[in-house]
Structure formats: structure tokens, C-alpha cells
Amino acid sequence: MLSHTLKYAYFPGCVAQGACRELHQSTLALTKALGIELFELKKAACCGSGTFKEDSQLLEDTVNARNIALAEELNLPLITHCSTCQGVIGHVDERLKECQKTNPAYIAQVNGLLEKEGCVPYSGSTQVKHLLYALITDYGLEEIKKRVTHKLTRLKCAAFYGCYLLRAQKSMPYDDPFHPEGMENVFSTVGATPIYYKGRTQCCGWPLSSYASTQSFKMAGMHIQEALDAGADCMVTPCPLCHLNLDSRQPEVEKVIGRQLGLPVLHLPQLIALALGVSFKELGLERHVVSTKPVLEKLGLY
């Protein structure tokens, strides 16, 4: 048993409170089942999803320095369930911590802008961590295993890491950015079988979808086909933007590639929570575009 209650400053991001509300819903259900306390940063701003720096690196750094400072004010690590948010905020935190040593004038500039708006200054005193790695390194897979009440036996899961979680930061202390095993280790912990395929660490195509949708859908379709051909019952992703391209746009993807797919795409906390006995109705699994019914049926939950 854990000797203390884990507490985090929770950065839900935009997509999990909009198009992927089931991610926010399932994160709350999972952390409640595990006894983890989340303190939502309701004053936090959008991380920018990597677009702010196209106009100004200072803008991206200042906005996200403020987000991090909100967690620092609570004296808690910042946790997010969005790979894109993790990539952007984590990268800013990494940059600013380096600037504290090499370019203190830049830190003063960032904090001067925050002070002008009445915001708490950035101090570099906390960590930015994705839910996946908080569960692995802070909570522990053995502790999760003890709480499994419904092993996901026979379910074959294909991880889709995406880009930002693995390669946005210079340092990746929790996993190998090119040959990760974090999600696969989680699958095994809850009784599921990991499926390996080429595209699991590649881009889902979401960044292209607004101006090159055909190319975007071809990328998504390639990954989904690979997972299906490898025998996957479902894909599992730690990123709501990947989920949008792989799940909500899967019908459009099918038209572009000329193949019927129908592969359910789950959010990571949904999968783990199912193994902990949380009702699928509490996890928003009915909100997915591609029906999750085949997964639930295979698990004897439907």
C-alpha cells in the first residue's frame, strides 16, 4: 500500500473539456478509484498546442510559465492526461529551468510579463508529468495490479503514443522515446495483451488535418490498418488530439483509404479504470464515434 496520498495540480487542457469530455470524466473516475487527489487548475490557459511559438517563443513560454506557476503556488507537481499539453508545457519547463542557469535575464523578462498581469512568477520548483508516467513512477504498477478487480484477459491492445509525449523534450527519463514500453507495461498490469506495430510512436496526422486532410487521414489510416493487421482489438492513446483523428475521424479515414476499419480507440484512463471495476457508463465510452461495444463484449461487461 502507498504510504501517502498522491496529490497533483491537474491541468486538463482544452480538448478533454470539449470534444473529448470522456477523457476528463474517466481521469476523474480513475484517480478517485486509486485514491489520488487532483486539484484542478481552473485559472490555467490553453498551452497553445505548439502554435504560439510560431508567432513568438516568448508568448509560449510566458503563457506556460504561468500555468506551471499555478501548480508551484500549490506546491504540487503539474499533471496532465494530454500528450500535447505534456509536450508543450514540459518543454517550456525544461527550457526555463535551463535559462535559469544560462540566461537569467530571459527568466526576468518572462516573470516581468507575469507580474504585469498580477500573476505568480515562475520559479522552476515543480515537475510536469503525464498521467501515464505518474501512474508508473509515482503510484507504481504493482500497486495498480493489487487494485485490479476485472482483469482484461483476452483483450489485445495497441498503444498509440503519438509524437509529443515521447520527443518534445530533450530529456525523457521515464521511457525510451523510440522504443517505449510504458503503455505496454500498463496493459500487462491490467491483464491485457500488448500488440506491437510500426506506427505506435509516429504522428497520428492531426496537425495536418486542418489544411491537408487527405494526407492526415492517410496517416491515421495507415496506423489503424497496421494495428488491425497485427491483431488488435482496440487502440489506446494518451492524447486526446490523437483520439480525435483516430476515432472521431475514422469514418472519414475509411473513405480516403477505401477500407472499412471499425477499430475502437480508448483513452488510457478508460482502459485502466475498466480493470479497476469502474462502470463503463462512468467512463463515457458511449461517446466514441467508433463503437466500443466489441471491447466491452469481449470483457464480458456489456
From TrEMBL:
InterPro entries: Cys_rich_dom, HdrB/HdrD_reductase. This is CoB--CoM heterodisulfide reductase iron-sulfur subunit B family protein. Residues 8-89, 158-247 form the Cysteine-rich domain. Keywords: Oxidoreductase. One of its GO terms (molecular function) is oxidoreductase activity. Pfam families: CCG.
